[in-house]
């Protein structure tokens, strides 16, 4: 878990990038879109709050996207 003053290391940033790219690709979200920025912000927030694993983050983001799709329908 990160605490104030800590930084995200390069390997962690690479993992967060993979999670975001995968989630965007699965939903056909352009990487340069506002939706992708929102997704990346949410993934980073999850990471900073203790979800550290790639699969854990991807699963949490998939669940969030399913809930949003259900609400929008």
User: How many discrete structural domains?
Assistant: 1
Supply the helix-strand structural class: mainly alpha
Q: What share of the residues does DSSP label as strand, in percent?
A: under 5%
Separate helix tally: 3
Shape: globular
Quaternary structure of the protein: single chain
Which H/E pattern describes the elements?
HHH
Q: Which parts are unreliable, with pLDDT below 50 for 5 consecutive residues or more?
A: none
Kindly report how far apart the N and C termini lie.
Answer: 35 Å
Throw out a few tags for this protein.
73 residues, mainly alpha, 3 helices, 70% helix
Describe this structure in words.
- The mean pLDDT is 91.
- With 73 residues, this protein is mostly helical.
- The longest helix has 19 residues, at 54-72.
- The protein contains 3 helices and no strands.
- The chain has one domain (10-72).
- It starts with 9 loop residues before the first helix and ends with a helix.
Provide the fold topology.
Elements: H1 10-26, H2 34-48, H3 54-72
Brief sketch in words of this structure:
With 73 residues, the protein is mainly alpha-helical. Helix content is 70%, strand content 0%.
């Amino acid at each position: 878990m990160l605490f104030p003053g800590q930084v995200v290391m390069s390997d962690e940033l690479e993992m967060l990038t993979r999670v975001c790219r995968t989630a965007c690709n699965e939903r056909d979200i352009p990487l340069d879109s506002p939706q992708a920025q929102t997704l990346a912000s949410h993934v980073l927030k999850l990471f900073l709050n203790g979800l550290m694993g790639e699969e854990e983050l991807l699963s949490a983001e998939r669940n969030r996207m399913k809930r949003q799709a259900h609400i929008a329908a």
